[in-house]
Every structure is written in C-alpha cells, then in structure tokens.
Design brief:
With 161 residues, the protein is α+β, with helices and mostly antiparallel strands. Helix content is 30%, strand content 42%. The chain contains four helices and nine strands; from the N terminus they run βαββαββαββαββ. β2 and β3 form a beta hairpin. The longest helix has 15 residues.
C-alpha cells in the first residue's frame, strides 16, 4: 500500500542524507521525495512516498522519530489530504500532431512552456494520477523527455467553524 509521510525536520546540512540513509539501510524504497524550507527558515518539510504494509510504515515512522533533527513525523495517508505533483514533458511536435498536443494540454489544464520547431514542452500540475494520465496520452505522440517533481502533500484544514 502507498503511504505519504510528512516529516518536519531541522534545516541543517546532512539531515536529508540521514533520512535517506535510514531507508536504504533497511531496504525500504522511496518512490518520491520532496523537501523545502517552511515559513521558519530553520525548519524544512520533507514529503516522501513509500510503499509497504502498516507494520513496515510504522517501523519507518519509529525510526524517523529516532533521528535527532526530526521534529515531527506524520503518515498523512490515513487523513484527508491534498497532494500535487508537477511534470515537464517535452513532446515531439510535428505539424500533424501540434493541435492534438494543445488539446490534450488544455484538457488537463496544462501549459505550453517552451516551443521549438520540432517540440513542445508542456507543464502539468495535479495529483499523481492526473500527471500519469496526461503522460499516457502524450506517449503515442512521442515523448522526448520527462521531468517530475515528486509528490508534495498537506493535510486538509478542519471544516468546523
């Protein structure tokens, strides 16, 4: 099962290396990883996606808590949350396929961010499934390059007033 884990940690050199070392040392895989400073410059939020059953994710969470620079670990998969990923996709753009690329990009509310005589670079932002769906539609046209950010996620705010 896929789990999205949010980790607040000290923004110091070597912290990310220790987190990824924890995963590799125990044979766990990180499918996606994104990290950036929060409103407080000395604290970063790391979002990672991994797979495993509940026991494995519980072990990962406990091991992360043991790291000295980790402030808080939350498996947000068990809550209501918003996730986003961004991808830049360079697609071969022959005169006969340009209109189709623009239609697909428009359907997914993407943007053309670079144009050359032989290719378009398009940007799409959304859930992992949305990004994958757009890539699947562009693949038969001729994808030349894909760059993806990885998942970022945030729990939804309480609806109580």
């Amino acid at each position: 099962m896929k789990h999205t884990i949010s980790v607040l940690l000290q923004n110091r050199p070597g912290v990310l290396s220790r987190v990824t070392g924890l995963f590799s040392g125990r044979g766990f895989n990180i499918e996606s990883l994104s990290v950036a400073p929060t409103l407080e410059a000395d604290i970063s939020c790391l979002t990672l996606v991994t797979t495993g059953d509940d026991a494995i994710v519980e072990q990962i969470t406990k091991q992360l808590h043991k790291l000295i620079d980790v402030i808080k670990v939350t498996d947000i998969s068990e809550t209501d949350y918003v996730e986003r990923e961004m991808a830049l996709v360079r697609v071969k753009a022959e005169p006969s396929t340009r209109a189709e690329i623009l239609r697909i990009t428009d359907i997914f509310r993407g943007k053309v961010v670079d144009v050359s005589p032989r290719s378009f670079a398009v940007e799409v932002t959304g859930t992992c499934d949305k990004v994958k769906a757009m890539i699947d539609l562009l693949r038969p046209i001729g994808i030349q390059e894909i760059i993806r950010t990885g998942t970022i996620a945030m729990t939804r705010a309480s609806k109580k007033f």
